[in-house]
């Protein structure tokens, strides 16, 4: 498997940034990151950042609750949040 590109350190967050961080932190078997900002055009918070949907499957989630899985994802993305993640929908499952 080819390593994901390292996240950029400036500018708005991209789906590739999120992908790279989650792959490094959680070693997922499945990971899909979609930028859904276009679905929220005109929404009051749309100017504050982007809207993303993450679908992730990882052995790291084994034996954890849904809340714990979401916390692991948010913890991994903590450094990207100030760069403009306005909304994050998460589907996180164990293998």
From TrEMBL:
Signal peptide: none annotated. GO terms for biological process: iron-sulfur cluster assembly. It comes from the Bacteria. Belongs to the BolA/IbaG family. This is BolA protein family transcriptional regulator. The lineage of its organism: Bacteria, Pseudomonadati, Pseudomonadota, Betaproteobacteria, Burkholderiales.
